[in-house]
Amino acid sequence: AHPSHRRIAIFGAGYIGLVTGACFAELGHHVVVRDIQPERIRLLNVGELPIYEPGLGDLIARNKERLTFTLDAEEAVRDADVAYVCVDTPPTPSGDANLSRVWSVIDALKAASHLAAVVVKSTVPVGTAARVRAALDAAGLSHVGYVSNPEFTAEGKAVSDFLHPDRVVIGSDDPATAELIASLHEGIDGPVVIMDTASAEMVKLAANALLATKITFTNEIATMCEATGADIEPVTRAIGLDHRLGPHFMKAGLGYGGSCFPKDSRALRAMASNAGYAFQLLTAVIEVNDLQPRRAIQRLKTELDGLGGKTIALLGLAFKAGTDDMREAPSTVIASRLLAEGATVRTWDPLAQPGDSEPWSSTTRHFTPVEAMTGADATLIVTEWPQLVEVPWDQARAVMRRPLVFDGRNLLDPAAMAGLGFTYMSVGRRT
Ligand code: UGA
């Protein structure tokens, strides 16, 4: 083996843990991934994926002699040089992150005095590193290094983001440990930025908050466009050409969702509040984002002259295209608002499994977009699935009760939709 190839134990077989494990195996390291959910480990051991992520299945299959899966924490760390913590940190009612899963991994590592380093990838409040450091010291592991290594991959392109990152952030209060973890990334095509642990923890929360702010700012400009007759598309295209601002994350829509932006922006705000500081800008972002799907429902309600007794087709349930993930998806708020207004809701999504809890148990699921739109008074596009561009919209027009499409993702061409006889609404565009 190459001298810099190491043995890595990964705790957590979710999006982050599996992508990290598979990519490190691809780079030549030996990896054991441990999870507490037996069904996850069973699936992985028979070559199946518990989550949907493009390219991940191939990567795992290709590296299976260097990548194993286990329920046993002791087995995972037995031969490891480095342990990665990749468990989730869900929000608590106060908005603070729930760190109980991180702490149970740290507890499991207290016997592993042979480790060179513990690396935390989970998104945690600033100051967690210092607390974990103290816990490791108290357990007699002061010789084990600690690294805060936030993850910036986005779902749907996590494998390529991991292998070609904009940057790898390594937070460590000890240069030798920072070097060791940096060396694991040999072969990764992106700059490594080394800093102290608290700053590394802050980078993650601040970067996600700024991205959420940029989206929300765009959504507010889109609302202003609707009010004034401007068009958000040329406006954002021209703004994005300013290299100081850049073209990314300026797509107007129904608000950001997913497992990170909503949770991380609330966590950063909670951290500020806990320190006695009101993070007013972030509070505004969170409020405006909560309003965004409700504003769309309100526009639909006005257009349809009330929603009671109406049938609405929701196309797309996932929080964005390319994933089956419905965590904090705008579709959930939208479906439950529509039901509260007395509407009937028919849904379609190519991947997401809404399950049978509310609001989904009160909706019907359909195999094709056209089937979902049959008999509908309006269609609401919630997720920017590319399949929706290919829908035979003339056919959809024929099966709908009223030809109304609200395109919450600005996916379709307004002129073409009008040409087919639709009343077409979108977000901030001149139609
Ligand atoms: C996000 C970040 O992009 C990653 O860098 C970060 O690592 C990750 O969170 C995390 O903290 O783990 P992700 O949640 O997978 O990744 O999805 P994004 O592609 O960032 O989209 C987030 C939400 O913003 C989606 O609901 C998306 O539809 C929305 N969005 C995004 C917009 O409404 N407009 C845009 O222009 C961009």
UniProtKB/TrEMBL annotation:
It is an enzyme of class 1 (oxidoreductase). Pfam families: UDPG_MGDP_dh, UDPG_MGDP_dh_C, UDPG_MGDP_dh_N. Pathway: Nucleotide-sugar biosynthesis; UDP-alpha-D-glucuronate biosynthesis; UDP-alpha-D-glucuronate from UDP-alpha-D-glucose: step 1/1. One of its GO terms (biological process) is polysaccharide biosynthetic process. Keywords: NAD, Oxidoreductase. GO terms for molecular function: NAD binding; UDP-glucose 6-dehydrogenase activity. Residues 313-414 form the UDP-glucose/GDP-mannose dehydrogenase C-terminal domain. InterPro entries: 6-PGluconate_DH-like_C_sf (IPR008927), NAD(P)-bd_dom_sf (IPR036291), UDP-Glc/GDP-Man (IPR017476), UDP-Glc/GDP-Man_DH_C (IPR014027), UDP-Glc/GDP-Man_DH_C_sf (IPR036220), UDP-Glc/GDP-Man_DH_dimer (IPR014026), UDP-Glc/GDP-Man_DH_N (IPR001732), UDPglc_DH_bac (IPR028357). Substrate binds at F152, T153, A154, E155, K204, F249, M250, K251, A252, G253, G257, K320. This is UDP-glucose 6-dehydrogenase. SMART domains: UDPG_MGDP_dh_C. The active site is at C260. The keyword Ribosomal protein does not apply. Belongs to the UDP-glucose/GDP-mannose dehydrogenase family. It catalyses: UDP-alpha-D-glucose + 2 NAD(+) + H2O = UDP-alpha-D-glucuronate + 2 NADH + 3 H(+). SUPFAM superfamilies: 6-phosphogluconate dehydrogenase C-terminal domain-like (SSF48179), NAD(P)-binding Rossmann-fold domains (SSF51735), UDP-glucose/GDP-mannose dehydrogenase C-terminal domain (SSF52413). It comes from the Bacteria. Its EC number is 1.1.1.22. The keyword Protein transport does not apply.
